[in-house]
Amino acid sequence: MKHTLVVAIGVSSALILLIILQHNLAFQKNGTIVLPAGGTYLGPTSSPPSPSLPFLPASGGAVHGQKYPYSFQTHESVKLVALGGAFDIYALSINNQPPENNVLIGVDDLNRTSELKKYIKGSKRAYVENWWKQFSALKGVETITEFTNKKGMKGYKATYINGSTEDVFFETPDPKYVIHLANGPLDQKIFDAIVDSVLWENE
Amino acid sequence: MKRPLFYLLLAIAFLMRLALIPNPGFEADVSFWKSWGLAILDMGVIKGLPLTNFNYPTPFAYFLGFMVWIYRLFADPHNFNEFWNNSNLLFLTITKIFPILADFGIAGAFLYIGRHAKRLSFPVFNYALCSIIYLLNPLGLFDGALWGQIDSVGVLLFLLALLASLHRFSFLAGIIFMIAMMTKLQNMIYGPIFFLFIWQYLGYENLIKALGGAMLAFGTLNGQFFLNHQAGRVLESITGNYDYFPWLSLNAYNPWWIFSGADGQQVSDKVMAIGIIKAKTVGLLAFSSMYLFAMLQQIKEKKGFLYGFLTSLILVNASFFLLQTQSHDRYAFPLSVFLLLWFPFTKIPFKLFAMLYSLFTLVYFYNLHTALIVNYPKNGIMLLNSFNTPFLTIIASIILTSLLIIFCIYLARSSRFISYFLLLIVGLFISAILFLNTPLMFQKPVSLTKITPITATAGYGSRQINMPANAAFGFDKWSPLSVQYAFYKTGIGTHAPARDVYDINRKFKTFSTDYGVDTNGGAQGSVIFEVYGDEKLLFRSELIKRFELPKHAEIDVTGVKILELVVTDGGNGNFDDHADWLNPILIP
Predict the structure, then answer these.
(1) Is 0.90 surpassed by the pTM of this model?
(2) Does B88 contact A at CB distance below 8 Å?
(3) B181, pLDDT greater than 90
(4) Per CATH, domain A55-200 is 3.30.460
(5) For residue A15, which residues of chain B lie inside 8 Å, CB to CB?
(6) Is B12 within 8 Å of A11 when comparing Cβ atoms?
(7) In which domain, by residue range, is B271 found?
């Protein structure tokens, strides 16, 4: 009996020590932000979108990137919000959904991380094939179709396992940059028209 | 087992689980739960769920909302950087505490059975040993406390339903069974054998009571949705996962994993597996056959209704994991409990059972661990990461499949009736396979509408069988296929740009089809039809316009494995481009 108790106390103490160590390690780890894939809820939103965001009225016509020299033709039914930032993003304003959840277009800078730098040289197909690896909830590539839009831009249409959008990637004259679009909840015909109008304007 | 030792082992099992909580586990699952639970908390179930991509049974939403509600008692779920962090210890603790408690609930159920064995129709046995085996089993430790899943909660609820039925509380048993099913939808597979057991054990009247309890629970748990005219969402939550992951195996080490060459998530289950039968159909036939076998043995089992039912549970769970395609890695988890409940009824020597149970545990743990590290290499046990090789996963698949075969042989040897049933089932399965292959055997044509494509895309609407593409927008748009008012009973309606990919497995010589722009299309419709065999262009039509009569093509597809039907917009955009493949047939 005594012997069992000694063993019990010993094992328990060791395990408690292990738990404390684990907890400390967990707290020391900064971790990473992991967001669920697809269109889903990430938090409440103010309605309509915050006035501090540069909000483009729904009038159609040409839209230009604020940081990068890309442009596209939008449709009169599409309300856009310029989120800007490092990716120079335009997002869709739909009902009361946060525009951050419905990013339409942005620019991926392959110089951003050492992981991405390897895609700067050569065709961007490899980047498109491996893009999903940045997102834990995506599981792999479903389809990739190479195409050229009406402005002569070479691109790739891709769908990913567990993803809910069609992603479109365009090569640009500057190999560091890839224009990235996602259809999100947008009508497919309107999205296709936007994709066809994307252009990287020579500076 | 001596009490101090028993309590010591309980303490060890608990502390080991606590130690695993900080591991971020399967991060995608945890982040989905955060999103869905937060939506429920912020907006309520009715308004919150439509803002998410929730795909669990609707009542599970309350559970997720409750988890985030608990979180809000201690921290702010709207603190973006803290809440969505994969090392959010508070949220990990809240999500994992439920399966951990359920693990101890299962252990408690074993002890309860041990104490009331006679009254519950169980043989006398050392069930305390079963509870300790379960608690120290790496499967239980890994699935809940590390991975963060709630399979053990589903198993515990199912056990409670069983205990209620053994106590003759049939109405309550029905209620708890439905709660179990609404928590883990996979519990659905036990429905027919569970109610069969209640009928056998308690009679017809209690069967009706149990079904009534289940229906009442279903209505109550989904009541808020029904009252808000959202019955469609309830139905969608139960059926929406059908074909959700159309792959051979979702990291479940089973025969389909072997068939896919250890790459089950990359191979569609619409590929032809036997003759012209797609893998998915073969899987469903195999699972259905085993289900029938399980029910027949349950009806005829002479050792008692409970033994027959527990045998059925093992057969059904193992078949669900091993035989059907689209099986998930975690589907075999309940076997770790069912086998421990079943063993005391048998005369198998303890050492032999312990050896086989350990083998199952070890191999299945390897399966679960590998499935986790494929997605999250840092969240597994570092020492085991190097064992993730295709060869070893195939060996694991062979072992797990062999264990089911051994189980069936054991059953067949135990009773003449059961061996006949097994032969009958194998015969039925082979007959079904032969029947579905009759077109091939008798060289009869097969309509392409009968073959499910591996992928199908359309520029508008979606691929439709025997109707034009816009039929996708509701029954008021349904109409027969027609090209310039030439009507066809069979065919495929689509819209440019369209691409349908079929596995025809080199079984056919000719592809014959009519084609044209559907009468439903507007005046601007103009398309080009193309057929590819293993990526080589076999046929390209001229530009076909809306008011043209149907054209015909006969294409040699000898030796072709992958057949692609493509419709392009003819270079003038895809406005009005409703395109039809009419009476498309494959001739062996």
Answers:
(1) no
(2) yes
(3) yes
(4) no
(5) 12, 15-16, 19
(6) yes
(7) 245-436
